[in-house]
Structure to design on (478 residues):
């Protein structure tokens, strides 16, 4: 009897969830994407990201992205970027347009121990401002990330357009345009990356 | 406010300050290369009798790269570089020595080397005698062992011996190994004779980049109306290039074993510093 009631309640929950419109306000989201055509050449990069639903009382969403360099198989022996982030969402539910703002960390792990490399592991603070929205089966995100370094600053705009192919699944394209600037020497660089991937709502 | 609250508030503020401090201390530098970074000056005249200072891109150092006393361009020793038909390593048929940290973004560098094609050299197909190849952008997460390897291309600049002539070639496309173009004219050279090459390069990804080259003291790059600098971007990324010399034939192996002698390989900041 007890097992039956548990099974019944699980089924009821599943039915309730499936009856709702699935969106990233109400559901956990797993994202997998692959890139990249980087500046002028191909270089394999993968992203694996988790984002929580928006917490109703505090309007906060937590996310964590792991970027692996030099691989299309997630496991890299050379470099990772780990990016935890917490965002305040300026909306109570999914709308055609809404905004969010957040803070996070960008931890760059550089694992190559090579005398030819100057790259070092470090952690930078990150500010995020984003416009988001959806229309029918399309959704879009337009985050602007600002990273602060000891000798400079970088701005990255990450426009993403997604198309819902199933109730739980979207495919998307994302372009990342990063501007990096060094204060003292006035050196700067533009970097471009392109990604294709999928959002899965749980 | 009681004692407990005060302790709690004090601890909380301390934690915040510590977190901020550790946050600031752990910040790194912007992941981009700055211009005018110092580079490694280099002298590879083989007079020590060994190959210290070089990085090896050869299957067998005891066969491919041997220091010999004859012939030599200057001093007592030179390098005998041998490429056999089956010498395949690092995705190509090659026998090369490399020098790193000598072709950085927006630096002006002189390179000098002397070479002699062995009299028994018998292949007419291309053979890169020296080249400046791009390096992974370490700062932005890249390294040599990307999987799959998607980025394979001809180097931004190389000196080729082909069909009895010497060619300076460049490549602007980091995704192509078939879009090389010739800088100036090919110049016929003789086997069994020493030739001195000097290159003057400004490494950049814009139109300010140039190469100026001399063969036996005469300009090898064409006259542009005011000087002999050939202006063309010569780095694929701001990480810059590295220098290597020897013999490289890509995926096309040789029919015979070929020998090229090298001497007076130098890297510096003036013509005088690097010429033999």
């Amino acid at each position: 009897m007890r097992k039956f009631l548990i099974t019944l309640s699980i089924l009821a929950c599943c039915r309730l969830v499936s009856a709702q419109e699935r969106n990233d306000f109400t559901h956990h989201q797993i994202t997998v994407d692959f890139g990249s055509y980087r500046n002028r050449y191909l270089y394999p990069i993968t992203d694996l990201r988790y984002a929580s639903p928006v917490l109703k009382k505090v309007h906060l969403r937590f996310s964590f992205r792991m970027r692996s360099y030099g691989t299309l198989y997630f496991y890299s022996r050379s470099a990772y970027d780990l990016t935890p982030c917490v965002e305040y969402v300026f909306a109570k539910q999914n709308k055609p347009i809404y905004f969010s703002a957040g803070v996070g960390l960008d931890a760059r792990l550089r694992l190559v121990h090579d005398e030819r490399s100057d790259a070092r592991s470090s952690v930078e603070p990150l500010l995020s401002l984003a416009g988001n929205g959806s229309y029918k089966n399309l959704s879009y995100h337009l985050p602007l990330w600002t990273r602060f370094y000891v000798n400079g600053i970088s701005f990255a705009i990450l426009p993403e357009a997604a198309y819902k192919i199933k109730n739980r699944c979207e495919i998307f394209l994302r372009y990342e345009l990063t501007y990096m600037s060094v204060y003292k020497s006035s050196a700067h660089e533009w970097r471009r990356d392109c990604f294709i991937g999928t959002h899965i709502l749980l | 406010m009681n004692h407990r609250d005060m302790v709690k508030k004090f601890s909380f503020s301390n934690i915040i300050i510590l977190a901020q401090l550790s946050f600031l201390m752990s910040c790194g530098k912007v992941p981009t290369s700055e211009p005018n970074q110092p580079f490694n000056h280099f002298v590879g005249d083989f007079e020590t009798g060994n190959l210290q200072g070089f990085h090896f891109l050869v299957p067998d150092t005891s066969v491919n790269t041997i220091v010999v006393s004859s012939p030599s361009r200057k001093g007592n020793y030179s390098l005998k570089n041998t490429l056999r038909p089956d010498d395949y390593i690092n995705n190509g048929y090659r026998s090369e020595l490399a020098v790193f940290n000598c072709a950085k973004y927006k630096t002006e560098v002189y390179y000098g080397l002397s070479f002699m094609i062995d009299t028994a050299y018998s292949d007419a197909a291309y053979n890169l005698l020296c080249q400046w190849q791009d390096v992974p952008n370490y700062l932005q997460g890249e390294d040599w062992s990307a999987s799959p390897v998607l980025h394979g291309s001809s180097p931004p600049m190389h000196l080729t011996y082909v069909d009895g002539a010497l060619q300076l070639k460049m490549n602007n496309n980091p995704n192509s190994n078939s879009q090389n173009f010739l800088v100036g004219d090919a110049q016929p050279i003789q086997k069994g004779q020493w030739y001195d090459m000097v290159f003057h390069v400004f490494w950049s990804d814009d139109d300010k980049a140039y190469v100026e080259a001399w063969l036996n003291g005469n300009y090898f790059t064409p006259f542009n109306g005011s000087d002999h600098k050939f202006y063309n971007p010569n780095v694929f990324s701001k990480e810059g290039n590295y220098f290597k010399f020897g013999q490289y034939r890509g995926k096309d192996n040789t029919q015979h074993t070929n020998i090229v002698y090298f001497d007076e390989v130098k890297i510096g900041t003036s013509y005088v510093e690097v010429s033999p």
In short: Chain B touches chain A at residues 23-24, 26-36, 100-101, 135, 138-143, 145-148, 150-151, 153, 173-175, 236-238, 242 (CB under 8 Å). The mean pLDDT of chain B is 90. The two ends of chain B are 82 Å apart (CA to CA).
